[in-house]
């Protein structure tokens, strides 16, 4: 079979006198690059250096090699905290992806009130996570709305100290982060849905595909890039979580809802173990980096895409 | 390896970070703060304090000083949650306030921490004489002190007199009586004391109050022995008793429902003028009575000693809540020292105590206590006052206690585990 070749794009004739845009060079981005280098990378490198010291946050320090890292991995409570960190990330990824997709499908077309409903679902993402968490605290605290509602319904046996129970504390945080994160996932999926040609769905209908089959074989494959972006974004947000945990449970009881970001804060700024905190921070950075690389590998363009 | 002999490559990396921070902060080097020339001219002192309660004397004292000397003092309240970090950062960058509140001990704004780092100026003379000689180690290092006490705030129980009557109980003298009282008062709708174990200070505040009788009443030098390695938490019966008592208090219903995760919800009602259904507040300094008297004008409070292992072992724990310090690198250091000398005069210390509802700095005597402290006067007169325990503990030890104690209530920790975790934290420091 003869291979068809696409006509090569021809370059425009060079004009006399270079256009203004031709003056654009890499150094146009210089100020921004410098700012990123100084603010982000230099600070990260400095922090990395302190991870190998016993710096307390004030005064002098000595180099301690890998002592901080040895101490971290010998402490079983830190391993539990790393587990919580991954749990938050996975919970946020799964929760916001499934609910975001459900909302996007429901509000994609058809409903007259869909624009208002979209705004309502999206609104929480525009609010401060800390403020949102304090509002939710009124729901979960012992004399809060949830226990009051259970009492009003005659379900006193289900009332509990939601924020102080090791079995429920972490799930109160998960509830809040999913509630706040659904909006951004929904918007990503709405953008993806808007790119699916209506003809595809019509063709599937003509082939007598039911609703589930149309979703399974038409919509979902077309949404694959959106799913990738939504899941990876929510995963990385989940790894960096801080405000809701601090506001709702403080990481307690006994670290049962604590994640790495909160542990870094406690060690570096509350207890004055800056070097140890920097080492924890480096571990968190590496974890996020691993997931970011995975995201790049998954989302990179392949031939045929 | 010391800081001065570390390899050049990390130094270069550190240099980039420092340089970037300085560039972004718009400053070139850490210079002494200056509000004017202390040797003459218009000096304006700056004074920072952590903003928490409604009652603060610092603005009043600043105005008084200006009236008397003509030297202006600009008072800067910093929200308490960010205070420690703000002071530490500003001290190290050379733009600290001329004067600022610190605290004894080795905490983040502790005199030992900041003083041994060379960040604070030495305090001498009349102000230094106010320090209890038994507590000098908590005020600095190498024989120097870097702050002086501004007032004494006993750590004891602030009791709502009306609630005590309504609950039909009397304030107990012993722990065993207290556990019985907890059950009676709870059945009448009142928790014996407010538990806010969602906030870290509750756990150690409560434990140290019990340990005052079970450990320090008979062994006031226990902290020094612990520092020397002569004793441990795990092998001290008094500490085992203290931590076990916390567990017993929870089981006996001494705290309100949901205490294991409560934080500041209590204040929402108090701010609205509602008297809480608790007999007492026991985990902080007693100066809270002053704020309560303003928020709940129809209620009266009295300060009682926390129950002891035995009635004879009850002690009043004296807390020096705040000290005053000045930065070592300070162009106004002479003016700052002059303000310290002025503030440490007896009439000014008395005025601070009157405003805050506390006891003037210096030795605590029965005569120096106002009427709200009537129930503890006899203990003070008998010399049953101890210094605040734990001031010189490594930070991690208090943190371990704060972390573990709620675990006693949720079943995550045993008494033995709490004590061994505290010992482990000490070993790590």
TrEMBL record, chain A:
Residue ranges crossing the lipid bilayer per the database entry: 26-52, 86-108, 115-136, 169-194, 215-239, 274-294
Gene Ontology annotations of biological process type: transmembrane transport
A single cellular component GO annotation: plasma membrane
Subcellular location: Cell membrane
Primary localization: membrane
Membrane topology: Multi-pass membrane protein
Statement: the UniProt record of this protein carries the keyword Cytoplasm: no
Keywords linked to the UniProt accession: Cell membrane, Membrane, Transmembrane, Transmembrane helix, Transport
Protein's UniProt keywords contain RNA-binding: no
Family according to the record: Belongs to the binding-protein-dependent transport system permease family.
PANTHER family per UniProt: ABC TRANSPORTER PERMEASE PROTEIN, INNER MEMBRANE ABC TRANSPORTER PERMEASE PROTEIN YCJO
Full protein name: Sugar ABC transporter permease
From TrEMBL, chain B:
Superkingdom to which the source organism belongs: Bacteria
One Pfam family cited in the UniProt record for this chain: SBP_bac_8
InterPro entries xrefs: Bact_solute-bd_prot1, SBP
PANTHER family: ARABINOSE-BINDING PROTEIN-RELATED
Name of the featured protein: Uncharacterized protein
Lineage of source species: Bacteria, Bacillati, Actinomycetota, Actinomycetes, Micrococcales
């Amino acid at each position: 079979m003869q291979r068809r070749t696409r006509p090569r794009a021809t370059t425009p004739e060079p004009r006399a006198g270079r256009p203004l845009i031709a003056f654009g060079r890499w150094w146009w981005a210089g100020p921004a690059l410098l700012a990123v280098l100084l603010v982000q990378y230099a600070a990260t490198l400095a922090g990395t250096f302190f991870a190998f010291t016993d710096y307390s946050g004030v005064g002098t320090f000595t180099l301690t090699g890998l002592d901080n890292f040895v101490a971290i991995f010998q402490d079983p409570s830190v391993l539990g905290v790393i587990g919580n960190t991954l749990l938050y990330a996975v919970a946020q990824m799964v929760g916001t992806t499934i609910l975001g997709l459900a909302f996007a499908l429901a509000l994609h077309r058809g409903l007259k009130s869909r624009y208002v409903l979209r705004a309502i679902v999206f609104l929480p993402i525009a609010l401060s996570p800390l403020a949102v968490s304090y509002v939710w605290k009124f729901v979960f605290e012992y004399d809060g709305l949830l226990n009051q509602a259970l009492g009003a319904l005659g379900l006193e046996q289900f009332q509990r100290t939601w924020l102080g129970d090791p079995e429920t504390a972490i799930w109160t945080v998960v509830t809040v982060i999913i509630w706040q994160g659904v909006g951004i996932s929904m918007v990503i999926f709405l953008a993806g849905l808007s790119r699916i040609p209506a003809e595809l769905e019509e063709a599937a209908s003509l082939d007598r595909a039911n609703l589930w089959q149309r979703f399974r074989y038409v919509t979902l494959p077309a949404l694959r890039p959106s799913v990738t972006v939504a899941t990876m974004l929510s995963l990385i947000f989940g790894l960096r979580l801080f405000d809701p945990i601090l506001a709702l449970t403080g990481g307690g009881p006994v670290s049962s809802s604590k994640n790495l970001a909160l542990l870094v804060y406690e060690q570096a700024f509350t207890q004055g173990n800056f070097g140890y905190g920097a080492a924890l921070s480096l571990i968190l950075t590496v974890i996020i980096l691993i997931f970011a690389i995975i995201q790049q590998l998954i989302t990179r363009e392949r031939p045929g895409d | 390896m010391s800081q001065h002999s570390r390899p050049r490559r990390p130094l270069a990396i550190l240099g980039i970070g420092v340089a970037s921070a300085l560039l972004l902060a718009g400053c070139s080097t850490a210079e002494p703060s200056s509000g004017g020339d202390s040797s003459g001219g218009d000096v304006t002192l700056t004074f920072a304090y952590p903003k928490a309660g409604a009652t603060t004397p610092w603005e009043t004292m600043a105005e008084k000083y200006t009236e008397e000397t003509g030297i202006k003092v600009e008072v800067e309240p910093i929200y308490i949650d960010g205070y420690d970090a703000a002071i530490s950062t500003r001290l190290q960058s050379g733009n600290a306030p001329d004067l600022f509140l610190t605290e004894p001990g080795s905490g983040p704004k502790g005199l030992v921490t900041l003083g041994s780092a060379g960040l604070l100026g030495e305090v001498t003379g009349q102000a230094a004489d106010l320090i209890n000689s038994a507590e000098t180690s908590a005020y600095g290092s190498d024989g120097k002190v870097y702050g002086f006490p501004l007032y004494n705030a006993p750590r004891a129980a602030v009791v709502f007199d009306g609630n005590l009557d309504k609950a039909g109980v009397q304030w107990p003298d012993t722990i065993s009586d207290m556990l019985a009282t907890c059950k009676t008062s709870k059945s009448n709708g009142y928790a014996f004391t407010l538990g806010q174990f969602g906030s870290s200070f509750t756990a150690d505040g409560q434990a140290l109050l019990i340990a005052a009788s079970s450990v320090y009443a008979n062994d006031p030098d226990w902290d020094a022995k612990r520092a020397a390695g002569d004793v441990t938490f795990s092998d001290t019966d008094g500490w085992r008793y203290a931590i076990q008592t916390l567990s017993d208090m929870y089981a006996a219903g001494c705290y309100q429902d949901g205490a294991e995760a409560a934080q500041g919800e209590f204040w929402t009602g108090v701010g609205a003028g509602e008297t809480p259904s608790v007999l007492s507040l026991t985990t902080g300094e007693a100066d809270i009575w002053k704020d309560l008297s303003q928020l709940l004008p129809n209620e009266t409070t009295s300060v009682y000693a926390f129950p002891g292992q035995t009635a004879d072992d009850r002690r009043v724990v004296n807390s020096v809540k705040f000290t005053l310090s000045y930065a070592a690198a300070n162009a106004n250091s002479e003016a700052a020292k002059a303000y310290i000398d002025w503030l440490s005069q007896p009439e000014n210390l008395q005025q601070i105590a009157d405003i805050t509802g506390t006891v003037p700095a210096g030795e605590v005597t029965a005569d120096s206590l106002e009427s709200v402290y009537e129930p503890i006067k006899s203990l003070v007169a008998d010399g049953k006052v101890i210094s605040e325990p734990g001031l010189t503990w490594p930070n991690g030890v208090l943190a371990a206690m704060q972390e573990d104690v709620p675990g006693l209530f949720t079943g995550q920790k045993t008494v033995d585990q709490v004590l061994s975790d505290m010992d482990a934290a000490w070993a790590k420091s």
